[in-house]
Specification:
alpha/beta, 7 strands, about 240 residues, homotetramer, seven-stranded parallel beta sheet
């Protein structure tokens, strides 16, 4: 009998790898989509090694080209079967800039990464899920979806839009049995990039462990449909959260 | 080796029974506190029968008398051991009335049930949990914690206060390893009382199944501490939610 | 022709004085209620001197005794006439303590000050306002109404409850032409007490000027009824707000 | 001595006309920008007639072309002088569609109208305002900025983004004395289009009167800078609001 299939859009080091490892270990086949195989091959190797029983395949697509993303997912469905879970795990540009320094191109680009690409991915899987009256669509997001920022306005604008999309999809399609969730990560992740960024201030106790975040995604996946969360916040126990 | 111990304050038909059954089936001993044994004995019998391997004990306390609740929990700790999980599952008065018809007594009472009692229960278990650097405190709440009501103002006032308490405790004690969660039930529960209340309009598909809600509590309990939720919303897939 | 009448509950140095001065200067008679005349006489003198054309009267009531507050307001209505505007400007205990150090008495007391007293005041004026299809009820609140606190949990619990009350009243009675507003002061006020508290760090540019806050209350009072705000946030331009 | 200058982007029947009339009556010169003069000439005539003492000039620009909007505003500054108040009053596409029926073009377009255009307008006026340490930037928005929609997802996605932009600008530039406000209209407006849309159900008592909304904008404009609102909600007294 075939395994359930999980697509992760935005696969690489960090949370993408952890999600892949978690869902593979829980019996999913995986289709992993990243911009280029170069960035993700090493991470995928680690996942493949750990999960001999699962099919794990790598695909390439540029999320800022929604038709391409749609057709990549159509190919996956054709070659690997029905999709049970889509995780849109793309993080738009996180470069700091003050609002007046945003370029129109950067504004357009963050929207394509965070909102249009997320919609394209959802659009590619939802009709099938609705037909089968089951399926899950998870969006990786952040506290930036809840408040503007004087230093990272692009990220906030993108994540606000992603949250609006997630809510809209949920309100329209939950009744067909589709579990749509906006995950608000209220913390930095303990990834190689963050380790480097923090330098001497690096303290893993202050960061969310990607494997733990993946575990909480998995727990959310198991929620029975009469007791679903549609917006999930995740933060480490050390986080002094504000709202 | 002893089992982990779960206290449920506010035990009876409905969610209390479902939580007891769930956590017993997951290997917990149970201390169940209700106002009178009369109301809860039948439900407890069902739980006990289903969970021969667990210790299940019934206690009585009036949550509107905080010192009494504290001392009841102290007795439980003495007789049954360290408390791993406290679930405060009390629902204050839900009688409809317009705001101007609230009596001062009703205002005081809903606060004692929803806030002071919840604090008393937390106060009875937190110092031990802090010493052991682990433990979970769960508060059953509702969407009423997020918006006022022209028809159920007492319930909203109580639940707003409960949410403030839950956030305050979490911000103060999460760093000691204590997982404090406010559960917002965004729906009516499919309980005998609701069945009767809805009458001919009763449609289980529109309600949250208590066993499913208990399952989502259990999933939340399993979140690893670097990826915790402190506010969890739960609603059935059929719920057209607004905020 | 008689002037409109404004009651301010919680009158003293700081915002109470500023509100009194502002509304007197805009043509209101004033009934000022404080716990003791001692605390408020000096402030009232200043207001009286500035507003010779208005009637300004001082009353005493303990807001934690709701029937007393109700009867005081009934007396005011009898002696001074119809009430156009009620401002409930009481601030509950702001002493810092960690959540586990809250006493049951302190929990009860903050609720009486912030919620029960506010309700008593509203209850004393709303029936008359509903009969006349006009009137305004303003509650002075704070950002504490929006998030719990590890250091000031009592204040948060009180202000959450006040917000629930304000929303409930508004949803029930706005349709009768009553303008009910929750003012969230997202800042410290530049008052003598704060000046002293900040000591060498005192910087008026970082604080909200009470006269400016009173001006913004007055502007809100003037909103036409087809374009009302029910929750108003106020912060100084120097405030780096979070949510 | 010259009058203060107000730019309204998105001028036509409805709120645009009401805002123009209000600010002209309060002593402002006006620069009114709409997509085509055809749509706005009649409305402008009405404003001009009512405000002989003010300069009122009409300009054309397509807000979905941000450089064009920027250069139009630069022209206005050159020809009419320093800008005191910018009101971005554009409403993106409000056509109903379910989320899966959104086209990529519609997604791009609503973002250009609601977010990129709003940023272009702000970018054209903020540097001058910052230099002078004064100025106001007002964004007309809606409750759609606070929750997704199963029926109007495009509108929600656009307004969420606009709110993120407004918060980000405010957090970055309020400290320079610039008052940036997101106006959430929590109601339909009583405009000719709505009158027609509602047909026999038309009830002006249920709608916000545009002149009243304009009045509340004007009251907000007068807030002193130590007691500013950055997010203003406006609803008619008849509105049974939810959040």
């Amino acid at each position: 009998m075939s395994k359930p299939l999980c697509i992760i859009v935005g696969f690489g080091e960090g949370l993408g790898r952890a999600l892949a490892a978690k869902f593979a270990s829980c019996g999913f086949d995986l289709a992993l989509i990243s911009r280029s195989k170069k960035n993700s091959a090493a991470a995928a190797d680690a996942v493949v090694t750990a999960t001999v029983a699962s099919r794990v395949r790598l695909f390439c697509a540029d999320v800022t080209r929604p038709e391409t993303l749609e057709s990549t997912i159509a190919t996956i469905a054709q070659e690997m079967g029905e999709i049970d879970l889509l995780i849109y795990n793309v993080r738009g540009n996180f470069t700091a800039c003050e609002p007046l320094d945003m370029s129109y191109d950067a504004l357009e680009n963050v929207y394509r990464e965070e909102v249009v690409g997320a919609f394209a991915a959802a659009k590619a899987v939802l009709p099938g899920m609705i037909t089968r009256s089951r399926g899950s669509v998870f969006f990786s997001s952040a506290t930036a979806a809840f408040r503007g920022s004087s230093t990272h306005p692009l990220y906030a604008i993108g994540k606000f839009g992603l949250r609006a999309l997630s809510q809209s999809l949920s309100k329209a399609y939950a009744k067909h049995g589709i579990h749509i969730v906006h995950f608000r990560l209220d913390c930095d992740l303990d990834t190689p990039i963050m380790h480097e960024l923090y330098g001497q201030d690096y303290d893993p106790g202050k960061l969310a462990n990607p494997d733990d975040v993946a575990e909480s995604y998995w727990l959310t996946y198991q929620q029975p449909r009469s007791a679903w969360s549609n917006e999930v916040e995740l933060r480490p126990y050390t986080e002094g959260w504000t709202c």
